[in-house]
Every structure is written in structure tokens, then in C-alpha cells.
Amino acid sequence: MTTGLQTLILGLALGGVYALMAIGLSLTYGVMRILNLAHAAFMVLGAYLAYWALQIFHIDPLLSVLINGPLFFILGVSLYRLLFVPLAGRPRYTEATLLLSFGLALGVEGLMGTWWTGIYRAANPVYATRSISFGPFYIPEGQLYATVISVGMLLVLWAFLQNTRIGRAIRATMQNRTAAQIVGVNVEGISALAFGLGMASAGISGSLLSFLFPFFPGKHWQWISSLLSLVVLGGMGSLIGTVVGALLLSVASVWVSSILGPTWSPVTFYAALFMVMMIRPQGLFGKKEA
Amino acid sequence: MSILEIEDVTAGYGMGPDILSQVSARFEAGLIHCLIGPNGAGKSTLLRVIAGLLRPRSGRVLLEGKVISGLRPDQVLACGICLVPQDRSLFPDMTVRENLLMGGYIERDPRRVSRRMEEVLDLFPEIRRYLNRRAGALSGGEQQMVAIARGLMVRPRVMMLDEPSLGLAPLVVDRIFEAISRLKTMGITVLIVEQNVRKGLAHADRGYVLDMGRLCFEGPAREVMEDPRLQELYLGRMALSNLEVRK
Hints:
The structure holds 2 protein chains of 2 kinds. Chain A has helices at residues 2-32, 39-57, 61-84, 93-116, 141-163, 165-175, 177-182, 187-212, 220-234, 239-260, 265-279; strands spanning 131-134, 137-140. By secondary structure, chain A is mainly alpha-helical. In chain A, strands 1-2 form a two-stranded antiparallel ribbon. The longest helix of chain A has 31 residues, at 2-32. Helix content of chain B is 39%, strand content 25%. In chain B, the strands form 2 sheets. A 6-stranded mixed sheet of chain B has the order 6-7-8-3-9-10, sandwiched between helices. By secondary structure, chain B is an alpha/beta fold. Classes of the chains: A mainly alpha, B alpha/beta. At the A-B interface, helix 6 and helix 7 of A face helix 2 and helix 3 of B.
């Protein structure tokens, strides 16, 4: 019972971060059917920036969230306008953007390798190795902060999508792009905004990743596969599904690692992916493709 | 006085053939215009061109003498032309209230949007009952009503409805056409594309007959209905398709 609860605590503490990591992927896919394979590469880039901000300027990774967020937002909007807009209207748009984002991932990985070599890094602010215990339970302090920030960011995003005019337009575009055009939504503008928001979530979760997990330039391949697994589990294009998928899979992976050892934990994601594909291909909250 | 003018419009999709070839037509302010014609005649395409969803290959669309072809859909909407497409294009996972709010998207002032929503709900009081339901969960007739109401959120001068009666029970169709008549009393110019020729023309002031991407003829709705060319166009083909069915 105690170990079960402890597993749940550790799982949920990571789940919030996974959810923030994946929400941008889900948003970008939902609004414009772009599966951004470079999402995790930008997360790792965010982690490097947070790492160097701490090393050189002594800026705490929790604070560099405030830098990475806007920085990656601007980067996202520019990349979208520069690279993705010219592809718009092409007959094989989704396939073309998939290849483009794959190329972007390789490019970002290459740049990071050139600038910062391939060695493992991890930011180590004081709280990275501490943990807080209450009764028989404990929670690593870094994970606690990261999850609190992630959940906060997700709540801000949720409130924005639910209660603002622009947020509603984003949801409308996700549900029916033509209908959004018909009511006067400038869907290209909304797409650029959504891509920017997706990238901002990558930058912010990069800051958190920097002290939670060791990273090197090629690490993003492992991340993108895990994130895709949980997005598929939740249902492609469903934001709620992504959050639920993240929480479920992170608890599952912590549980698997407590039984079989940490090497088995990443396998949880792929096992779940296969199971979803066989049992419910549209995911938990997804709709069947028409 | 004509409010909307189509001049020699030729249009098609992607690299495909011309769906409309050199169509010219005038639509009069405050009247109900019914566009009819067999499947594939280009009726919906014409509406898409007017709404700015499809750029014409040549020709122009003018609203009160001002060229609007080439504008983005949101800019056309801001000029006062709205489209209720064939599939109704509601946002299925949003509530009816949110759908109406989205209808007023181009208006930035939220107070004006909510005032407008009250006006629309006074015009279509039946919608109040399901304001908080998910649009995707409504019946076809209810969805059509919401789609029309959503279009009204921008106080349009021209409202285009693509097959508003499609897939609805006869009783419901009557309610929709009654709602369309209400649009006319509000001074809105209406363009309807209709498969149900008799019903469409019966509620319209003018009829326009399209075939194979060309405007065959037009005139007062009553005259169009009795025009032998219409009989020929429809009955000729219908007889043919019935023969095919029998085989």
C-alpha cells in the first residue's frame, strides 16, 4: 500500500512535466495537422540554454522558464512563417511537414552537437538532489517544483483556450478548419500562434528537463518517441487526452521501473503504444478518422 | 438595385478542370435568390468563390460595385457576406453558445458580441433551449438553425445557404424555409442553393439555373419554375437516371 502510493506520487510528479512536454506537440497537430518531430529537439535545446544560463549567469532553471518561454515562442512563430507557410496548400501537406520537421530535428541536433559536443549534461541547482519527505513518503524536490510549474502552465493554457476570443478560435480551428475560416478566423495567423505556443511549451519544458534528466544532443529521439506514445494513447489532437495519457504513462513507467528496474521504464511507453494501436487506435479521447 | 455582382467568373479546384466557366449574375438587394441545377453544376463552387474560400481563375465578384474577389474569407465576412455551408460546419465539441460566440468572432468588443447574441436569440428563440448543449449532439434541423443563427452574428447583408434542407425531414424543412423568410424581412439578401427545386423556388423571388458550370437562364422564381427549359434539364436527366436504376 505504502509503496503503491509512493509509486503514484512519483509517477504523478513526472506526469505533469510529461503533459507540458507533450501538450505543444498535441496543439500543433490539432490545429494544423503538423506532427512536429523536432519538438523534443527544441526541448533539448531549451535544456542546453537553461544549463548554460545556470553555469554562466547563475540563472536558476526555474527562472529561465521565463526566458525560454517567450524566446521559443518567437522562434516558433518565425520558423512557422519561414518554413511551413510556403508548404501550405500543397497536395501532400501533412507528409511534407513531417519530413520538414524531421529535417529540423536533425539540424537542431547537429547544431547542438557542434556547439556543445556530445557529452551528457545536467543542470544541478541545489534542489536537484534533495527530496522532501512527509510521513513514509518522499518526493524529489526538483520534480515537485517542475510539476508545480508544469501544472501551472497547463492551467494558464487551459484558461486561455477556454475563456479568450483567440483561445476559442484555436479550439475552433482544431475542430473544423473550414468552419473557422467561414466565421472569419484568419487560420494562418492562428496556426502561427499555435506553433509558437507549442514551441514555447518545448522551451519551458526544456528548462525543467535540464535538472530532471541528463541530456545530450541525440537524446531528443528517445523523448520524441515517448511523447508520441502518450499523445497517441490520449488520442491525436485531443489536449485533455494528452494530459491524461501523460499521467497514465508516467505512473505506469514509474511502476514498471520499481518492479523490473529503471532500464525497463522507457519500454512502458512503446508497450502502451502497441496496445493502443491494437485495441483502440483512435486513442482514449480521440475520434475515429473519417 | 443589385447588391452583389458576379462578372465572368471562372473557377476550379487545384489543378482540376474549370467547375465554373464565365458565369455572370446579379443579385438584388433584399431578395431571396435560389440557385438550382443538377449535381456538379457548380452551385456550391459559386458560393465558395463569393465567400472568398476559393479564388476565381478569372473574373470578379463585386459587392455594391466594390471588388471583393481576392479578399481572404475573413475580409469578405467583414464586408457583410456570410456562408452557411452544406455540412453546416458547426464546431461539434463546442456548446451552441460557444458556436454563436464564434459567429461573432470578427467583432472584437465582447459587449457587442453578447448584445448581438441576445438579438439573434430573440429572432430564433427555439435555440435558447439548447444553448448549453454540445453542437455535435443536436439533430440536423437544430444544427441548421444554429448555423443560420451563427451566420447572423455578424449582421450580414448577404447570407448564402448551401442546401439548407439537405437530409432534413419535410416538417423540419418547412421550419428552415420559414426561418429563411424571416431573414428577408430583416432586409438580408439571401442566396440559397437548393436541390429541392420546387420548394426552393416557391420561397424565392428569383431563380438562377446552372448547368455544367454555366448560367443557363434566370428570372423571377415563378417564371423559372414554369420554364420548359427547366423541365427539360431536370426531367430529361431524371428520366435517364430512372432508366439506369431500372436496369
